[in-house]
Design a protein that fits this description.
The protein is of the alpha/beta class and 300 residues long. It folds into two domains: 2-217, P-loop containing nucleotide triphosphate hydrolases (Rossmann fold, 3-Layer(aba) Sandwich); 223-282, 2-Layer Sandwich (Alpha-Beta Plaits), CATH 3.30.70. It is 35% helix and 28% strand. It is built from ten helices and 13 strands. The strands form three sheets. It has a six-stranded mixed beta sheet with strand order 5-6-7-3-8-9, sandwiched between helices. The chain has a four-stranded antiparallel beta sheet with strand order 11-12-10-13. Strand 6, helix 5 and strand 7 (181-185) form a beta-alpha-beta unit. Helix 2 (88-98) packs across helix 3. It is globular. The mean pLDDT is 91.
Length: 300
């Protein structure tokens, strides 16, 4: 289990992380979100034991991260930092032996992952000869070559096409099934929403949203109604509790303050002709993120 307990990190007078607390249990995927400079990378570095919190503590399986347990952790940083003049094989032997892995085992696992990522032919190629997307696969492999019990991923999907993003997601899910703890950041909130159990959203080092995604959505209250059919947009805008109506090629999205308003919208829509769709949905994680972060900036 990973516990971040009331952690605060200061750089001089700057508060980078402000009394942050959360718990990740084995087999959980945890999303750490926020705008650039919100404190995500600092939090990752505290988790990894690279930074000592100014206040509070980070506990991994009952103790601190150190040389005795660092081999159980995998870390993929946001900045791509590979040794470009050596081959994929040489790079992986280097990273694997830093984790006290036997060279034979490193090469066995490397062969498996190269095949899994469809880049078998690149084993003896230099890193600089690979495309950016394939370099990212290699960096991901370097983070998981030791079968980590804690996997820390900082923007792992950045720059990936949808097919490779889905491949990364499948691998992350495989580690979850094995009981690994996974904590990651991503600006692609649709992926966070699809496979994360819990999230924290940081802004200026503070947690402004935290908890299970389902509960976060429930607490937000605002909902969307997707309508396809012949309706009068101005009448919809005039219904109390409707704060926005968006017209697009797929129909009309009516944004409402809470679920009670949906009855009034439905009472109007059922008087209209040729209605082929009427769906009430919770606000997306992206909408919640924008609303909450925007609110913080308005208050400043």
């Amino acid at each position: 289990m990973l516990e971040v307990k009331n952690a605060k990190m200061m750089y001089g007078d700057l508060v980078a992380v402000d009394h942050l607390s959360f718990i990740i249990k084995p087999g959980e995927i945890f999303g750490l979100l926020g705008t650039n400079g919100a404190g995500k990378t600092t939090t990752f570095r505290m988790i990894m034991g690279l930074l000592e919190p100014t206040e509070g503590e980070v506990i991994y399986n009952g103790g601190k991260v150190g040389y005795h347990n660092v081999n159980e952790i995998g870390y993929m940083i946001e900045e791509r930092s590979l040794l470009t003049k050596i081959t994929v094989k040489e790079l992986m032997l280097y990273f694997g032996q830093l984790k006290d892995m036997d060279p034979k085992l490193i090469l066995e696992r490397l062969d498996y992952w190269l095949e899994r990522f469809s880049i078998v032919d690149y084993k003896n190629k230099k890193i600089k000869e690979l495309s950016k997307g394939n370099q990212q696969k290699i960096q991901f492999i370097s983070a998981i070559i030791n079968n980590p019990k804690l996997l820390v991923l900082d923007e792992p999907f950045s720059g990936l096409d949808p097919i490779n993003t889905e491949l990364f997601v499948e691998v992350i899910r495989d580690f979850q099934k094995k009981g690994s703890m996974v904590v990651f950041s991503s600006h692609q909130l649709d992926h966070v929403e699809s496979f994360c159990e819990e999230i924290i959203v940081l802004e200026k080092g503070k947690a402004i949203i935290s908890g299970p995604i389902d509960q976060v959505k429930k607490d937000f209250k605002k909902q969307n109604i997707h309508i396809v059919g012949e309706v009068d947009v101005e009448i919809l805008r005039g219904i109390k509790g409707v704060f926005k109506v968006v017209e697009n090629s797929n129909g009309i999205i009516v944004k409402i303050e809470n679920e009670d308003v949906s009855k009034d919208v439905f009472d109007y829509v059922k008087t209209c002709d040729h209605i082929t769709k009427y769906d009430v949905e919770q606000a997306s994680l992206s909408e919640i993120f924008i609303a909450k972060v925007g609110q913080i900036h308005e208050e400043v």
